[in-house]
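can u pls check wat happens w/ iron/sulfur cluster
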Amino acid sequence: MKSIQKRFEINFEKVSEKNFELNFENTKKDILNMHSEEIAKELPNEPSYRSKQIYEWLHKKLVTSFEDMSNLPKSLIQNLNDNFYISAPTVLNRLISEDGTVKFLFDFGSGVVVETVLMTSNYGYSICVSSQVGCKMGCTFCASHIGGWEKNLSSSQILAQVYHAQRDLEARLGKENKIGNLVLMGIGEPLDNYDNVLKFIRMLSDEYGQNLSQRSITLSTCGLVDKIYKLADEGLAITLAISLHAPDDDTRKKTMPIAKVHSMESLFKAANYYFEKTGRRISYEYAMIAGINDSELQAKTLGTKLSGNSVHFNLIPLNPVTEAHLQKAPDANIRGFAKTLEKFGIEVTVRRNQGTDINAACGQLRRTRNETGNNRARGVSNGYKILRS
Ligand code: SF4
């Protein structure tokens, strides 16, 4: 069997040691969460260029130890060790798929356990990060909300997912391999953790850090209308992806509780505002669910509503979640749905699963661990690859 799948068993001793360290570190400040101006304020007796040096070590060179900051004086390194810590996760599990997809289960201590997926394609490396522990939104086709919402991730905990995956990538395949795209589509609703997510985006795209183009960042929301308006006014150049998953309010309410709060009409208005303010085309995510949202009539309904708008549709064959009892739409329905939308002038991409052999759906790895104490996944991947565009 040619599988290169690797599984890493849990080292409980190591995990509890790390958690102890993190609890201890809670008395110190999280320096990865600070802009260089914030670092400067924390170090009033140091020359101003020091904060920029420290910021670059943390966010460009991705070090995880103050000792590695070789251009700092020893006294400053001691001060940093005494008063700050660098947020970095313990890896509870790491699965590598035959297609190169890597799924991480990260533990940041104090119950903060999240998933991150690194995907590879002809366009380079993309990462999907989590923004919350659990989720309040309750979409029935998603495992992330099962067990409820627990915590928001800090900006540094979202950054640390990217930084760990980048270090892992370089260690496996060489320093020239860089993550070029990022999607906020992992566990959690990013706009429900608004301030931390915004700070994360600004720091990740900072020229003194990873300098990732904002155009390479996609934020996915289930449709928090008021926050979409706010985001549109932030002056960012990120892509907004809206999880739509239905052609009308009644169908949407069957799988997405947020539809009871915000109508599709109000969502489309907010999306248009985002497009007007940013010039960024809206991307709609549509999980194809058998017998729920996959008929030709529903495609026509959707096409009629969005015809003439500058939008892009991603049709995603549903990744079944055991608890939801929902099935993936037949391939013929997915193809037919795409063709119908295209007749209305809408650009469509049909995606296919990546990393299916590592059994790792969004939220499933963490969910399985919470239920069994076992870090092995049993779901399917939340990574997607373009099948037809
Ligand atoms: S699809 Fe997104 S918003 Fe809905 S429950 Fe899952 S993580 Fe939350």
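DSSP finds twelve helices and 15 strands in the chain.
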